[in-house]
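sry for the spam today, last one i promise. struct tokens for design, 119 residues
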């Protein structure tokens, strides 16, 4: 039960971070620290999008480091699955039986890209 709550907290925390990046990229004034952090991550624009893109696609923006991250992927029945992705866009839908409705980083790194099974 605690793991599910923590996972959802991470999910909603990341959604807030993505929303903050969208506001910063839309012309709103950002402070110098935010601008410096964004510049150090690499040349990703807000229009390209990072994170869950919809229709079973997830984009991992790594800033050129080549890192991999472990995701929690949710289908429309609420089942969770683990899926590791590398930099770029990955389609996580083909290996999950029911329609994917969301995917978010669960804190895991340095994994081998691919499907890891039910959470």
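last one done:
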């Amino acid at each position: 039960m605690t793991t599910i709550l923590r996972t959802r907290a991470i999910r909603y925390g990341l959604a807030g971070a993505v929303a903050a990046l969208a506001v910063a990229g839309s012309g709103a004034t950002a402070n110098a620290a935010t601008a410096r952090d964004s510049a150090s991550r690499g040349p990703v624009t807000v229009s390209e999008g990072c994170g869950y893109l919809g229709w079973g696609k997830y984009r991992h923006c790594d800033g050129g480091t080549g890192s991999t991250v472990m995701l929690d992927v949710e289908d429309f029945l609420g089942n969770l699955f683990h899926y590791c992705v590398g930099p770029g866009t990955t389609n996580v839908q083909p290996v999950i039986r029911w329609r994917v409705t969301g995917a978010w980083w669960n804190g895991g790194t340095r994994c081998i890209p691919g499907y890891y099974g039910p959470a």
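The beta strands are 51-54, 57-60, 69-75, 80-85, 88-91, 100-109, 114-118. ok im logging off now
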